[in-house]
Amino acid sequence: MQSNIADLRKNYSQKKLLEKNVAVDPITQFQQWLDEALTAGIDEANAMTLATASMDAVPSARTVLLKNFDEKGFVFFTNYNSYKGKQLAENPRACLVFFWKELERQVRITGLVMKLDAEESDSYFYSRPAASQLAAVVSPQSQVIESREWLDGKYKNLEKELKAEDIKRPEHWGGYIVKPVIIEFWQGGPSRLHDRLQYALQENGKWKIERLAP
Fold first, then answer.
1. Where are the alpha helices (H) located in 4-56, listed in sequence order?
2. Which end of the chain is flanked by fewer CB atoms within 10 Å, N or C?
3. In terms of domains, do 152 and 82 share one?
4. The pLDDT of residue 139
5. Catalytic residue among 62, 108, 128, 192
6. How confident is the model at residue 213 (pLDDT cuts 50, 70, 90)?
7. Do residues 47 and 96 touch, judged by C-beta distance below 8 A?
8. Considering the domain boundaries, does residue 62 fall inside one?
9. Arithmetic mean of pLDDT, 67-80
10. Rounded-to-integer distance, Cα 203 and Cα 200, Å
11. Residue 50 pairs with which residues in a beta bridge?
12. Looking at the structure, do residues 64 and 114 belong to the same domain, yes or no?
């Protein structure tokens, strides 16, 4: 029998999110929450949904991994020729969402997107395992391919041809940084009266904290 998903309920009650308890800037607050997620043993706490849209407003979303962050922004790496890469070339804006259900928390980051310079992309690429480097070279990400066997064959052939030290970062692969303009912290609350605090970047470079209705 098909279950009725409309009847699924969970009452959030772990913690509250109050203005008096948060950091004055969202990057510090994000670091605190990420540290708590890591301490809680959440698997791949750096996993985030990346939402993009084309110039004609067609949206797309997928899960990627956060690889670095600071006051400048949030960094991830991918194939520039992928669907998300093409959308970001048309419309360099994105939204990131972290959901740590074990802590009843969500963070939503909206911002402008720029490519990292080649040196930063090289630094991360060459820190990856050789197998991951080969995969980045071999995979025509988001394109239609004839079969899994074709992909595996291409990978094995390149693996035979190249030694680990001979693998070069392809020009179509590298990093992006999402420069935030809005960061929202969400803490689940009882009776769906969740806590939502939004940090909005002001023209003077400071962050304004406002409470949003749940």
1. 26-39
2. N
3. no
4. 94
5. 192
6. very high
7. no
8. yes
9. 98
10. 10
11. 62, 96
12. yes
